[in-house]
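Sanity check. The docking grid for HDD depends on where the pocket ends up, so I'm generating a full predicted complex first rather than guessing from homology. Inputs follow.
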Amino acid sequence: MGQSSRNSNNSADRKNEQLKKYRIQNTGKRITTNEGLKVANNDSTLKVGERGPVLMEDFHFFQKQLHFDTERIPERVVHARGFGAHGVFETYKSMKKVTKACFLQEAGLETPVFVRFSTVQGGKGSKDTARDVRGFAVKFYTEEGNYDLLGLPFPVFIVHDPFKFVDSQHALKPEPHNDMPTASAAHDNFWDFVANNQESAHFVMWAMSDRAIPRSWRMMEGFGVNIFRFVNEQGKATFVRFHWKPILGIHSFLMEEAQIIGGVDPDFHRRDLWESIDRGAFPVFELGVQMIGEEDADKFDFDVIDPTKLWPEELVPVEIIGKMTLNKNVDNFFAETEQVAFDVTNLVPGINFTNDPILQGRTFTYKLTQMHRLGGPNYTEIPINQSLCPFHNNQRDGFKRHRIDIDQVNYFRNSIAQNTPGPTSPEEGGFLHYPEKVEGSKIKASSASFKDFFSQARLFWNSMSPVEKLHIIEAFSFELAKLDRPSIRQQVIDMFVNVDQDMATTIADNVGANPPTGKHVPVDASSPALSQANTPHYSFSLRVGVLIGNGFKGNEVRKVIDFLKQQGIFVEIVSEKLGTLSGDDGTEVKVDKTFLSTHNVLFDSLYIVGGQSSNQLEFDRYISEFISGVYKHYKPIGIATTGQAHFQATKMNNLAGVVFADNSPEFAKEFSLAIAQQRFWDRV
Ligand code: HDD
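Predicted complex below; grid placement will be based on this.
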């Protein structure tokens, strides 16, 4: 097989084509049993007389009911709540020099992908906006088989030995005696685990930071966390870590917003993804790689295969090598998002394992969980999991086997089929494990080089802006205040003094613990790439709520709304009742949401127009409630000439980020710039 035929071709629609034959349209069809029998009655069970008992003979009823009784499958143990979308990955430049991975060989190659974003702690029905590490799982349907890149929005893991993974997740999940709390780590078990497994310090700093409450999955970074190897045609290996960089920048909610949204719209993130794809505002992430030559591995003050450490971008730059565009929503949540099965061992030639212990520990576990969830070993035949290239081997049978293997031979080596299906040489695209030389005694131990738990946790702290630091302190104070046991609070304070004395002392004061006595580790370095203060800001696809009643100034409001929409801003009209509102010149606007059916936390900004209403008092009260929420959360507010009355400057506020139509000829432009800025932290 030549090189070019192993490459992904440019048909991003191939997965779509493959799925097409499974898409069934039921509308307009006659109802049948699952065996295809047309039925004459679809309203009632079969009974003896109208009021008589139901008969066993009613196989149609039984099939319908029995199917319902079994229509749930086990939810994922962790990452249970998630949502997926289809897309395409485009390679920017050839990576031939470092990897023979087929989909990275040439600029312009396109590979279909399926992505599933998830939360970890909560069950399938929990809220999207929980403070949590998330999942960012990408399946590339390459010409050489499926390649899965499973990521998190943090670059580091909670433990460095997979033996403790189960403990960490048990401790994170709701406490077993009362199954509380849902989708939250704010409980004794989690923090007890943290204090007694101090390698978690770095991960916990990320979990307490704004990274754990993203504004949108579209504005969230993804990290492959584990350390992989790129391997080129010559067999030369390079250590590699993967990064997804959202082109909209990295943005977060405030803790209070995330908590309120958990109640008023628990589906916020999936709705945000769905709506942006639906409106053609496709989420885009660039793929970056950090690479360290094997010969340079010893040059750093951290062990490069330690998954609780990051490689600072200032030391090891991120090279951008492609982009992923999510451009199609699923047709059916269960068939696609729920049945998609990711596996860290889904590799292609050119991408290989290292001795990163967490990666090693993950290698067998995904297959088992998919077999358990999806009812046996044939889950790779489910349409969303099928590879684009055909598969051939001698595995047979098992629950729900779809394919009909027509060969007599189902073993290797054989003479009947001339030893086929047979292996492929590495030169022709056969996968080989990297022939790393290893030696040593069998011991149950972790490397001493992994045991600096606090230097990078402090590097992270040093890299935060003052606002981000404040948010970390608030998050710790919130979580620790919820614990039942003062002793755990104290253990956590005494642990995190190693990261920063002031931070730990302030938290101790907030939660009634004793001030810590220790000192933080002597690290002054920072990594500006870790701070969200340095991320790009755009107004594109942010949500603006227009609070409006009848009698608005048609000309003024129309121009502003048109301008915002031209910038790709999502505009929603909010008023007291659904229906149509009229302006002074006959301009009409359709109301999208009522004050009751939405909430100020669901908007990135407000445009206050005001107007008349049948219940003026109530109308004005709602507007002032919306304003005070959005003002409190530092978000931009635009005030139309008619909206002025709703917004009084006082000695108590400095009006940062509030734009008035009255004193600005370029109001729409200024307002959209304020929307792009997103937060005005200097507001009082
Ligand atoms: Fe894992 C799911 C990512 C460590 C065992 N993992 C899962 C998902 C992601 C990750 C994104 C969700 C996939 C989906 O949407 O269906 N996991 C990671 C990363 C890790 C990591 C980046 C560390 C670097 N995981 C890890 C360890 C183990 C597991 C150490 C066990 C030894 N992970 C699982 C699992 C899950 C899973 C139990 C649950 C649901 C599933 O696999 O499909 O097998």
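Relevant for the grid: The mean pLDDT is 96.
Also worth noting: The longest strand covers residues 319-329.
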